[in-house]
Every structure is written in structure tokens, then in C-alpha cells.
Amino acid sequence: MPVINSEVLPVRREGDIVSVRQAVRKWAVEIKCSLVDQTKVVTAASELARNLLIYGGGGEVKLEKLQEGLRGGVRVTFEDQGPGIPDIQLALSDGYTSGSGMGLGLGGAKRLVNDFSIESEVGKGTRITITKWK
Amino acid sequence: MSSSVLATVISNGQEDLLKEWVQQQIQAEGMRRDLIKVEELTAQSREFLQRFQGAVGSGDLINIRSIAWSPVLESISDLSRQRGRMGFTPTETALFVLSLKAPLTRLLREAHKDDPIKFIDEITVVGELLDKLGLYTMEVFLQSREEVIIRQQEDMLELSTPVVKLWDGIVALPIIGTLDSARTSVVMESLLQRIVETGSEIAIIDITGVPTVDTLVAQHLLKTVAAARLMGADCIISGIRPQIAQTMVHLAIDLSAVTTKATLAEALKTALQRNGMKVVSSSAV
Ligand SMILES: Nc1ncnc2c1ncn2[C@@H]1O[C@H](COP(=O)(O)OP(=O)(O)OP(=O)(O)O)[C@@H](O)[C@H]1O
Ligand SMILES: [Mg+2]
Hints:
The complex is a heterodimer. In chain A, 37% of the residues lie in helices and 34% in strands. Chain A is an alpha+beta fold. Chain A has a single domain, classed as Histidine kinase-like ATPase, C-terminal domain (Heat Shock Protein 90). Chain A has a five-stranded antiparallel sheet with strand order 1-2-3-5-4, covered by helices on one side. In chain A, α1 runs antiparallel to α2 (35-54) and α2 (35-54) runs antiparallel to α4 (105-112). The two termini of chain A are 15 Å apart. Chain B folds into two domains: 2-154, Globin-like (Orthogonal Bundle), CATH 1.10.490.130; 164-284, Transcription Regulator spoIIAA (2-Layer Sandwich). Chain B contains eleven helices and five strands, in the order αααααααββαβαβαβα. Chain B has helices at residues 4-12, 14-27, 38-57, 70-86, 90-98, 101-111, 116-157, 184-197, 215-230, 242-250, 264-274, and strands spanning 164-167, 170-176, 202-209, 234-238, 259-261. A five-stranded mixed sheet of chain B has the order 1-2-3-4-5, with helices on both faces. Chain B is rod-shaped. The interface between A and B is medium-sized, with 24 and 25 residues. The complex binds adenosine-5'-triphosphate (ATP) and magnesium ion (MG). Residues 47, 51-52, 55-56, 80, 82-83, 85, 91, 96-99, 101-107, 126 of chain A line the site of adenosine-5'-triphosphate.
């Protein structure tokens, strides 16, 4: 799949989550996503960036602009070297949190985008990739 | 090479070196005489030279990241940040260290009058050393500029939450800004405080100015509503734009326990109704 453009943003502090949201918003606008779709992918990115910071101890967010035929897309990858997720099914289920959240972010993010994939190894880290197509 | 020569040369020629170096800095093109006084420059230079001499004495003239050099890096770091704040350019800032080259070269040439090869060897090492320190100056300078930018961004994002009294017992709290920083809970608490202070029965929290509503934002809102209720005030959340509403549904955020309205105007209408009032057109009266 042709990648038109890419950008890597570090997430080390709270303010970085704002930068991630802004960057994702900008790209979603560039591929001409509707306002609803922009909001969805920005919100999903916000959830995953915060998980990355809180649970993963920080890491990197990679943004890619995709072009497949006439269709544009934004792919965002969240990668940390944190503790990993021991039970992905459990983590994805609504209401499960190991912290003090609502336990809705991960499952919600999955529902807000077109493609969602998650790889995680305990003690090694977590990589989550989402794609929103126009 | 015998680093001791440099150390000795510096300690023997100290006062002269300092004078010449300061002179060099003042005369350098782009020196901001308007921003810094000669006395201050001399004091900074003297302090630096002392630390520099100490580090040179350690014998390591290659690795400026070693412990021996940390006092030197520290003083460069302070100077860089200070000059960055004062409005120096990166070049003007790096001149500090780089202009030490000429006077040091002169001292070394005198010390090695009879041994040009030795002189060249030594001046090469010293030149590289000062270049590294110059680059470090730039690095810190740029980093501190970035920090300033980040701080400015944060200030812009800082929440603003005015409390607007709309009617007896009805206040509106338009929230403008991002609602997911560490400060949010503090702001929410003071917001509750103001609901109590104004003795309001109904508080309309308007989130038209909140760009993203994710689970953390929702959690903050729900907690505030619950706390307000405990204090005897009912909350109405208004300004939930259609795209936000749709997103919240996907996030499975349950707002069914809260009264929500699309606009502040509708929320006001509901609030008035609850207080037994009704807004009617004057022709209907
Ligand atoms: N990057 C990660 N590294 C390790 N664990 C994670 C990571 N992301 C999520 N988790 C785990 O998955 C759980 C569920 O995440 P989810 O985002 O759904 O809920 P939450 O962050 O706890 O609360 P909410 O997002 O609703 O505020 C987390 O509590 C955490 O245990
Ligand atoms: Mg989460």
C-alpha cells in the first residue's frame, strides 16, 4: 500500500497527546474525511496516545498518509516498550481497567476506526495500529 | 599529547587570557553590546575559564561528556539559556566559546615556539575541543527555545472556565480548551466551588469549546456532575455537537444519567422550566 507521507511524534508528556490529536486532525482533513470521521479518528488517537503514556510509559506515534486507488487513508501506529498487555481480550472489553479509567478507551478506539490491530508482549511492549479510510 | 601544556599555559597566562578573550568577544561581529555589560561578560568569562582550566587539567581533551567536563557544560548550559531568553541569536551565543580559540592559539604558539609540529598537534586538538563546546552551546540554545515554545502552547491550551450567571439560581459554565490535562481536576474542583458559592440550583456545563471528548474528558464531566448533585445542584451538559455525540456512542460512554442538550439556549430553556418559568413571545401574552 503506497505511503504518501509519514511523521513520527514522541509521546513523553501530557502535552504530547495534544500534539498527536492536532497532527491526526490535520491529516484527516487533508484526506478530506468528513467532520464525523475526523472526530472519530482523532478521538481514537487520543485514547491510544494516553494509554501509551499512562500504561506504556511513553513511546512513539507514527502517522502515515495512505493512498489506495482513489481512496485516501490515515494510519497511526502507537508503539511503546512498556509492560505489555497480558490479556488483550480482557483489555479490549468495555469496563475493564487496571488503572482508574472507565475502561472504555481501547475497545472504543477499535470501534471508531476501520482497521485496528494490536500486538503486545509482556515485558516487551505494545504496538497498536489503526487506519481510518476516507 | 601532553595535555598538561595547555593547563599550564592557561594557569600561567590567566589574567591576560581573560582580558584578551573578553576583548575578542566584544569586538566580534554581532556582539550584542546592547544586551550585556562588559562587567557581566567578564564575570561570566572568568567563571568559565576557571571551570575550563579544571577540566583541561583532567587530561581528557576529547570527550566533553565525561565527568571532568560536566562543570563546563553546566556553565555553557546556563549561559545558553540565559542568552536565549535575552534575545541573542544562536551564532551570537556560540561566539562565547568559539572566540576563545584565538587567544588560546596565541598562548600555545608562544609555548611551542621551538616545536611547530607539537604546536600544530596541540592546536588541532584544542580547535576540535572548542568546536565541540560551541556545538553544545547551540544544542542547548535550541533546546531551550523549544521548551519556551512548548510552554507557550500549554499556556494557550490552559482551560478557561468563566462562571456566567444566567438567571437566579442558574449558572452557565462554558468550558473552553482541552479537558484532559493534569490541571483539569483542579479546575473542575474550583468550578464546583463556584456552583456552591453562587448557591445555584442548576449549572449548565457547555462543552461547545472542548475540541475532543474522549473517555477521560467524559470521566471528568461525569464526576463533576455527580459531585454537583451531592451538593444540591443539577447539571445540564450542553454543546454536544453531532460529531461528538456519535463518537461518544462508539466509546460506549453512558450519559443517560445526565440531562444533555445540543445548545446552551435549549439548556437554558430547560433550566427555566425546571424553575417554574417559561419564555414566551410577547405577542402571546
Ligand atoms: N499501551 C499499553 N500498555 C500496557 N497496558 C495497556 C496499554 N493500553 C491499555 N492497556 C491496558 O488495557 C486496559 C484497558 O485500556 P482502556 O483504554 O480500555 O481503559 P483505561 O485506559 O483503563 O480507561 P479509559 O481509557 O476508559 O480512560 C488498561 O487499563 C491497561 O491495563
Ligand atoms: Mg485508556
